Queue: 2 jobs
Job 1
Amino acid sequence: MYHIINRANARVQIFDNEKDYQIFENILAEAVEKFDMRLLAYCIMPNHWHLFLYPKQDGDLKKFMGWLANTHTRRWHTSKKTIGEGHLYQGRYKSFLCQTDNYLLSLIRYVEGNAKKAGLCNLAQDWQWSSVFKREKGTDNQKAVLFEWPIDYPKDYLLLLNAKQNASEED
């Protein structure tokens, strides 16, 4: 399982409005289906995004991420009428391997709590551009893109998610 992050070139804002976020979510859903990827969590921020992925086979992550970033870049430039004007992302995505179930919940909590931590919402589940919003308030179609966690979903997850995270969990 991998925590993936990618930032906009020069950390500029690339998600300016609802349409920008929706375009990325649609591409993410296409990628999940196209590559049969298990998406456990995500959060789209104004200038970057986090994914928590569980590939089925070696090589799946590279194919998935290559298609996702390239497709988003092309469609973003097309929608902004900036085709040929440079890189959208600062570079290749960063991936962090999660090897233990104990760390899994902390990482998912970090990903899904990112918008709250940044002050974009009062409660993490209120950030429309995240998996926790989709799981709690989304339509059946929106929920279908998410894969069931390989650990038990804590009964008090929303309380845990919205509690202040300690420094070691935020690194």
Note: The chain has one domain: 2-170.
Job 2
Amino acid sequence: MALIITENLTRVYGSGNTAVTALDHINLKVNAGEFLAVMGPSGCGKSTLLHLIGGLDQPSEGRVIIDGQPVEGMSDDALTELRRRKIGFVFQFYNLIPVLSAAENAALPLTLDGVTPAQAGAKANEWLTRFGLGERLASRPDQLSGGQQQRVAVARALAADPALILADEPTGNLDTRSGDEIASLLRDVSKKYGRTVIMVTHDPRIAAYADRIVFLKDGKVLDDTLLERKDTHKVAHVTEKIREMGG
């Protein structure tokens, strides 16, 4: 069953001779529990697609449907509730609050939503422990490695039990080993915990953790590839696809 549907999704910035088409009539379906990677050269519309799906931007044409509910026409309050309760965001930079502990950072979305500190803390601790940070709950961001900080960010995204995780270059600020750990973690989020994950990445190795890869160029879908997990050459396959796309 499709959790996310985009219909002729288009985003144009500016007007007249200065108009730039960031997305050009994108039609996608992403199933519940699927791990989708979005790839393409810089400026191809990857982040714009994520922002439109997450309700952080509005389309010029077309629409986004999340769990059967069109995002278009939602009031600001309804959009805020959608983002807070149904969508978790993970970015390249961790955006953790320096003076808060790992547990306090992970609990923040629930705290802002009016959940009691005890309940918010318990949920945050649960996710952090699952992600191997059970002994670092009281650590501040500056006491954690980059990979550990991104684990806190993923735990924060999951604290409210959203159905959808949107990850924009989540490994872009990490070394190779930490990047692989976060990509594997996001795969677990999809396969073990049943969340839908849409991840933007430029790295074929990271994209190969996904079930499926959509390649964008000039705001359009050039290719939509399903990856076989038994394919031991999946990274080479992704790299070859990128070469074919001219990325």
Note: The longest strand covers residues 2-13.
